[in-house]
Structures are given as structure tokens and as C-alpha cells.
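We were asked to recover a plausible sequence for a given structure. The inputs and outputs are reproduced exactly as logged, with field labels preserved.

PROBLEM: sequence recovery
POSITIONS: 701
GIVEN STRUCTURE:
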């Protein structure tokens, strides 16, 4: 039994969820308003018999006690196992000495930074000098930060002087090397150590869990440079992976499904103070693909609201290019994120505008332009007055990749038409462009060229028809069966040592699915594209029965857990997917992982070591024939669709029971809602069945 299964065996899902959600008995299940979205009619159902939960409303998701705890508390899967393991009295996993030492090192740095943040904060809110009082005046009057905001964000003050924080931290037991490693102190070439932050307003930077990992510091002396100074990269802080204020914005982003990105932490703080709680700030000059992926986990719409000066416009352009590249690479499934941008009039930054007129800011965010509209408008407006037809053609070619950041051909064609109309209008306005001749077909041809280049892959090697290379001389003694192998009743061949028992058919489908996925992680995005392709333009299907592939598609608890870890691995960039999983998994799941990813050839070799081997040439011919017609992508898609079809069948059974309970209770609204979901599920089943028929035909050709 895996650790996850042991936890689930010891904890009752109804008892656990009742601590957070007021469940009410309804027939054979328990119901409540969903804790993950706002609703008046209960759509959150807990099934005590199956030890499962599901939201049949806007969330359209569900799972077991582990997935509920993970979603409700915002924990990672590892954190969920740890926390529920404590409740259940289950030891999750033992750390190696190296892992334990690394964890203790990071905890020490977190404690150091937390202490520094508290000291800086007290220095600001309880000023003991004229400099400190001046800093508080700047924060309260120049930046208009309220007392509540100062407390919420832990804003502080680093006084002048070279050794204030260094000496304080040393006095309470931290070593000089630790203070330097945390980014609080600097060591120069002469070996002198001193405070990094001096006479600055201090803004703690926190991770998603609200732990201090670094600082942003604003100079208080106009002559000090740079104006803004961030912590250096440390074991805890990496600005390319960090979004300021995400810890306090996460719930609002999840609820609104929208994230607004501003340029600086002052912009973000002012936005939150004004009640715009879904605002975060990038920590560099442009958004990174890691930041995009982080937001894409909770947001369906991401709005860039960077400064409107030249630097801000350049940052917006670079951010859109990063987004385009990331979406093209399928990190977020491309159009699963609606990228938008806004321009602030009057060369103001968000901080200024929000303080001046919160209503204007809200209106700008609501009217944020789709990327295509924004890019076309701003880039064409930036053309110099003497731009030539060649300049315009070059610009059009540069815009096309951003306009094609969609897997939906209708969107692509619409964007191309928008560009064409803008070019026609520009030609009419400028005499120097009267000779400009760009047709829709030209743009479509350039688009096709871009897509061909972006999608180019090395050709799949054609299996050789020649005899396989001569294998090394086999150990015939080891391979030969015993002398009496053909005497008496035949006994079943023993399994390879890779598995103790032959798995059932459903488990084998899940196992094979994971093997293909772990060997080819990019196939995850291919599978999601296929599901969205089947859903078409139906939002109900996209967000319901044909939503992205997920852990709930697996019935085996261990495989479901592995899928969750796999999705976690995709959400980070520090390690290779498999390396990340190996570091995160407990010993039980690690054994499952290794058993799954062992190459099929190794399985065959293991079996050959136990039984009389098939003729090697025949085996080679069989493998060659399979390789010529078999495609891992096609196989994975077929299995993903079968898993989804099986899941939909299971959910339809639940929905029919809920519909019957609602009818018995006289709840006609719920009865109608469940009936509509049954119809939607049947529609998805028909689409899946049709696609499976097509795939089966391809594989049989």
C-alpha cells in the first residue's frame, strides 16, 4: 500500500471536509455550496461510500481527500502528504542526510530573512531617529501607503550605516557567510563585509507561501543610485521565477480567473491598497516564461499593464514575445491563456493613475486589448513618418509570430485580417506608402512559412529493412530451458522480476499511458490540444467533460499521485521533469516510477532470461514492422481518450444518482442541472468515440 493510500484509509473524507465546509446530508451523499467558487445553489458533493468529492458547478473538478486538501489549502502534493500524514499518523518519507542538510540550510536562510524583515519593519513604524521619521513620512505621504498597507506588506526601513543589520544578525547567532548568502550583506574584493541596504525603504519579497525570500529597496536620498535595488540571486530568490505580491493575490486571481501584471512592486502595492487584489509585479524588465506558467495555473486571462513610457513599451513588447514563445512551445497549452495588454494614457505608470483615479484604472483593465489588437496598433503607430514600403513589410513579418500564438486557425486568420486592414488604412494615410502592395494571400503565405519553420521537426528515422546488427554471442547455457521443459503439464511462465503480478487491463492502460508520458513529457500538451480540439468553440465542453488531462483521469491511486507530481514537475524549470519527480517522490512512489519508465526492451530481456527465447531475427522483424506503423503520439492520444471516456462513464453514473436524489427531494433546479450535465457528458462521449474510431483506423493501416 502506498503512503497516499494509507493516509486515505485512515482518514474519512466527510469528517475532514466538514472542518472547512458545512456539509448537509442529501440522499446517499453530502452537499454544500462549493468552497472554490461563489454560488447560491449547492453543487459541491461528497460521496462517503467512494470517499470522493466533486463540484458539479463552475469548478467541474473533484477527487479524493488529498486533492481536496491540496486545492483548499493551496499546498503542493508533497505538502499535502506531509500535513495529512501527520493527521493520519503516517510517516510520509525519510529524507536522506543530504536532503535534510539542504532543507535545514534553506530554513536557516528563511529564518534570517524573516528576522531582517521584522527589524526593518519596526525601524519604520516605530521611528527612533529623524531619518526614520523622514522615511515614514515618505511612505505615508509621498507614496500614500496606509497603516494597513504598511502592515500587510511588512514595509520597513534600512537606516544609514554600513553594519547595522550585519551586526544585529551576528549578535543573535547568524554567521557572516549565512548573512551574505541570504543577500543581506556584501563582501567586496578586499574582504570587507557590509550591509547591502542602507537608507532605503524596504519592501519584503515573498514566495507563494508568504515566506520572505528577498527585498526590494527604494532609495530615499535622490542622489543614491540605483533608485531601486533588489536582493541578488540566492538559494531562495530568483527574480525570473518570482512574482511580487502573488502570495496575497493568489486567491483573487483564482476567483476572477484574471491576473494583472504591473512593472514594479510600488505599482502592485498601490493596486492592492485600492482594492485591486489580482495584481502582481514582475521582478525584471520583462515577464519570463516561468512567471507566465505560474500565473497560467490559476488565471485564464493575463493582462500586461506596464508603464506607458518608452521603457515600459519595450518591456511590454519583450513580455509579449516571451509569452508568444512560451505559448508556441506549449508550456501553457497556448490559447488556454488569453493574453491582453493595456496602455495608460499620459505616460503615467499604474501607481500614479491608481492614486489619481481608481475608476479609470478599473475601466482600462476591463477594456484591455487582445494581444493582436494591441500589437498591431502600437507597432504601426511607432513607424517613423518616412517609413518605406520595405519597412512596413519587415514590420508585418515581425508581427506575424505574435499574431499566430493560437492553435485555433479561426483566430489566426482573424488576426491576419486585422493586420491587413490596418495596413490598408496606413497606406491610405501616408503618401510614401502608396506603392505598398501586401495582400491577404501574402500575409497568409508568410504565416504558413512561419508555422512551417516553427513546427519543423527532424524526420522520423525509417526503420531499416536490413538484417539487424549481429548481437554479441549469447550465453546459451543461461538461456536454455531445463532438460524436462516439455514434459508434464505446462506451467505458466513466471513474470519478469519487474512486476509481482500481471496488472488488470485498466491498470495496464494507465501504466502504459504514464510510460509514454514520462518518456515524452511534451505529449502532455499534445493530449490537451486534442481535448480542446474535440471541444471546439464550446466553453461548456472545454471547462467540463473535455477539460485538460489531469490526475482524476487515473483510477489507480499511485498512478493518480504520479500524474500530480508530473504536473508539478512541468510547473518548474529548475530540474528535468524526471529528476524533479525522483527528488520529490517517497520510496513507494519512486519504485512505481522506476518500474513504469523501464524500457520495454529491458522487460523483454528480463522475460527472455526466464524462458526459451523467440528467434532474435523474428523479434527484430516484428519490432521493425511495429516501428514503421506505430506512433507514440497516436498511441498516447488513443489511451488518453479511453481514460477520459471511462471517467465520463463513471461520472455519468454519479450524476444519474444525484439526479434521482434531487427528484426525490423535489429539488427541480438541481435535477435539471444534473440532467444537463449528463447530456453534456454524452455529447463528449460521442466526440471521443468518433475520434477513437479514427485513431483505430490509423493504427490499423
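RECOVERED SEQUENCE:
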Amino acid at each position: 500500500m502506498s503512503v497516499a493510500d494509507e493516509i486515505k484509509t485512515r482518514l474519512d473524507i466527510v469528517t475532514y471536509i466538514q472542518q472547512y465546509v458545512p456539509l448537509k446530508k442529501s440522499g446517499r451523499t453530502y452537499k454544500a455550496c462549493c468552497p472554490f467558487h461563489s454560488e447560491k445553489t449547492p453543487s459541491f458533493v461528497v460521496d462517503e461510500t467512494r470517499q470522493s468529492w466533486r463540484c458539479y458547478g463552475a469548478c467541474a473538478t473533484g477527487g479524493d481527500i488529498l486533492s481536496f486538501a491540496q486545492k483548499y489549502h493551496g499546498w503542493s502534493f508533497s505538502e499535502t502528504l506531509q500535513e495529512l500524514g501527520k493527521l493520519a499518523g503516517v510517516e510520509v518519507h525519510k529524507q536522506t542526510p543530504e536532503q535534510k542538510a539542504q532543507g535545514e540550510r534553506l530554513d536557516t536562510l528563511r529564518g534570517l530573512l524573516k528576522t531582517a524583515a521584522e527589524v526593518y519593519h519596526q525601524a519604520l513604524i516605530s521611528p527612533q531617529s529623524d531619518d526614520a521619521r523622514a522615511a515614514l513620512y515618505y511612505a505615508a505621504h509621498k507614496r500614500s501607503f496606509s497603516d494597513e498597507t504598511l502592515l500587510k506588506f511588512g514595509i520597513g526601513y534600512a537606516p544609514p550605516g554600513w553594519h547595522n543589520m550585519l551586526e544585529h544578525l551576528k549578535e543573535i547567532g547568524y554567521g557572516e557567510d549565512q548573512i551574505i548568502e541570504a543577500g543581506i550583506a556584501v563582501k567586496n574584493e578586499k574582504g570587507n563585509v557590509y550591509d547591502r541596504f542602507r537608507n532605503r525603504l524596504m519592501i519584503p519579497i515573498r514566495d507563494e507561501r508568504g515566506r520572505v525570500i528577498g527585498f526590494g529597496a527604494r532609495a530615499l536620498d535622490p542622489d543614491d543610485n540605483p533608485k531601486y535595488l533588489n536582493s541578488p540571486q540566492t538559494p531562495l530568490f530568483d527574480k525570473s521565477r518570482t512574482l511580487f505580491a502573488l502570495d496575497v493575490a493568489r486567491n483573487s486571481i483564482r476567483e476572477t480567473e484574471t491576473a494583472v501584471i504591473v512593472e514594479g512592486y510600488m505599482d502592485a502595492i498601490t493596486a492592492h491598497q485600492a482594492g485591486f487584489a489580482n495584481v502582481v509585479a514582475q521582478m525584471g524588465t520583462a515577464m519570463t516564461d516561468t512567471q507566465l506558467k505560474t500565473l497560467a495555473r490559476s488565471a485564464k486571462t493575463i493582462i500586461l499593464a506596464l508603464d506607458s513610457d518608452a521603457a515600459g513599451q519595450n518591456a511590454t513588447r519583450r513580455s509579449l514575445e516571451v509569452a508568444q514563445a512560451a505559448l508556441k512551445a506549449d508550456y501553457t497549452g497556448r490559447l488556454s491563456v488569453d493574453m491582453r495588454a493595456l496602455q495608460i494614457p499620459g505616460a503615467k505608470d499604474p501607481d500614479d493613475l491608481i492614486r489619481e483615479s481608481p475608476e479609470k484604472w478599473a475601466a482600462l483593465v476591463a477594456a484591455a486589448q487582445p494581444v493582436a489588437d494591441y500589437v498591431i496598433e502600437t507597432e504601426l503607430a511607432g513607424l517613423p513618418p518616412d517609413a518605406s514600403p520595405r519597412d512596413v513589410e519587415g514590420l508585418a513579418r515581425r508581427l506575424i509570430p505574435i499574431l499566430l500564438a493560437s492553435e485555433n486557425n479561426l483566430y489566426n486568420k482573424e488576426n491576419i485580417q486585422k493586420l491587413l486592414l490596418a495596413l490598408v488604412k496606413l497606406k491610405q494615410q501616408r503618401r510614401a506608402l502608396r506603392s505598398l502592395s501586401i495582400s491577404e494571400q501574402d500575409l497568409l503565405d508568410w504565416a504558413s512559412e512561419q508555422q512551417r519553420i516553427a513546427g519543423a521537426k527532424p524526420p522520423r528515422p525509417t526503420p531499416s529493412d536490413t538484417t539487424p546488427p549481429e548481437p554479441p554471442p549469447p550465453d546459451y547455457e543461461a538461456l536454455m530451458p531445463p532438460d524436462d521443459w516439455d514434459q508434464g503439464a505446462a506451467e505458466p511462465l513466471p513474470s519478469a522480476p519487474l512486476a509481482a503480478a500481471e496488472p488488470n487491463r485498466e491498470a495496464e492502460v494507465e501504466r502504459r499511458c504514464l510510460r509514454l508520458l514520462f518518456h515524452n513529457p511534451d505529449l502532455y500538451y499534445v493530449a490537451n490540444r486534442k481535448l480542446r480540439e474535440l471541444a471546439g468553440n464550446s466553453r461548456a465542453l472545454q471547462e467540463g467533460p473535455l477539460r485538460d488531462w489531469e490526475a482524476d483521469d487515473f483510477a489507480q491511486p499511485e498512478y493518480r499521485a504520479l500524474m500530480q507530481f508530473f504536473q508539478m514537475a512541468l510547473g518548474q524549470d529548475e530540474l528535468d521533469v524526471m529528476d524533479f519527480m525522483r527528488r520529490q517522490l517517497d520510496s513507494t512512489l519512486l519504485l512505481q516510477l522506476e518500474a513504469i519508465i523501464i524500457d520495454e526492451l529491458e522487460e523483454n530481456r528480463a522475460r527472455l532470461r526466464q524462458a526459451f527465447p523467440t528467434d532474435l531475427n523474428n523479434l527484430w522483424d516484428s519490432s521493425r514492422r511495429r516501428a514503421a506503423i506505430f506512433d507514440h503520439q497516436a498511441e498516447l492520444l488513443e489511451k488518453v481518450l479511453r481514460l477520459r471516456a471511462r471517467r465520463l462513464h463513471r461520472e455519468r453514473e454519479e450524476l444519474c444518482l444525484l439526479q434521482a436524489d434531487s427528484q426525490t427531494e423535489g429539488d427541480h433546479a438541481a435535477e435539471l442541472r444534473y440532467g444537463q450535465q449528463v447530456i453534456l457528458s454524452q455529447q463528449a462521449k460521442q466526440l471521443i468515440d468518433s475520434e477513437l474510431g479514427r485513431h483505430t483506423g490509423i493504427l490499423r493501416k
